[in-house]
Design brief:
alpha/beta, Rossmann fold, Alpha-Beta Plaits, 6-stranded parallel beta sheet, binds adenosine-5'-triphosphate
Length: 218
């Protein structure tokens, strides 16, 4: 993996978990917070940590913020600070600014001032939990559009020991298998002769409703 540089502004629970994951993946991560207790290097997993107020242009310049490949604004409760920070980052020429929004209005303003990607952690996590409760056999999913998903689905018992040809997923369920997840490995573009084994999961692409029907087969 090529090494990229990231600055995470706001070291609350959200910011520190992003910073730690990136750092564990061997990336260069600068952690920034206005509160010096949050910047205690023993507590956060970052390459370096700095105390500064991200609403002050000079402070952002002093750490060379525009040289970072990505800047993540993980300030939530102080909406004014979050908006001002995103605005300054874009004015200073940061290429990719990712910002956390508390609600739709906040998110719209962040987009207006130039955020390249706005995330809604509570809303998105809530949707994921609901999805998981409604479809316990779906382990993972990606929304491709309003209608189409890619989903990783636990194979129903009735399909074990059958080949993909026999199952004829496309004709019977209107879904396409793009991979089989077997133990820790992936069989990409499985051939029709592949036989489904106990514990396999199928990665499938299709219309949401068709995938949902498939996920409820016993
Ligand atoms: P989380 O929900 O991620 O745990 P939190 O509830 O602790 O966050 P938030 O208000 O979302 O608090 O702020 C996250 C972090 O952003 C805090 O540690 C806060 O000190 C920091 N922060 C707030 N304003 C600024 C600012 N102007 N400059 C730098 N850091 C800031």
């Amino acid at each position: 993996m090529t090494k990229q540089s990231y600055a995470v502004i706001g070291l609350g629970r959200f910011g520190t978990s992003i910073a730690a994951k990136l750092y564990e993946a061997g990336q260069e991560v600068m952690g920034i917070d206005i509160n010096n207790e949050r910047v205690d290097e023993g507590k956060v997993s970052v390459t370096h940590a700095v105390v500064l107020d991200s609403t002050e242009e000079e402070s952002l310049k002093s750490v060379g913020i525009r040289n970072f490949d990505y800047v993540i604004v993980a300030i939530g409760n102080d909406m004014q600070a979050s908006i001002l920070t995103v605005m300054l980052l874009k004015e200073l020429g940061v290429k990719e600014v990712i910002a956390k929004a508390l609600n739709k209005r906040h998110g719209q303003v962040l987009e207006k001032v130039g955020a390249d990607w706005v995330i809604y952690p509570e809303r998105d996590m809530g949707e994921r939990v609901a999805h998981q409760l409604l479809s316990p056999n779906v382990l993972n999913y990606i929304e491709l559009s309003k209608e189409y998903n890619i989903e990783e689905i636990i194979i129903p018992l009735s399909m074990e020991r059958k080949s993909l040809r026999e199952l004829d997923l496309r004709a019977k369920y209107n879904v396409n298998a793009i991979a089989i997840v077997r133990n820790e490995s992936l069989i990409i573009s499985p051939s029709p002769d592949q036989t489904i084994q106990n514990g396999d999961k199928l990665v499938m692409i299709g219309h949401r409703e068709d995938l949902n029907d498939f996920a409820h087969i016993k």
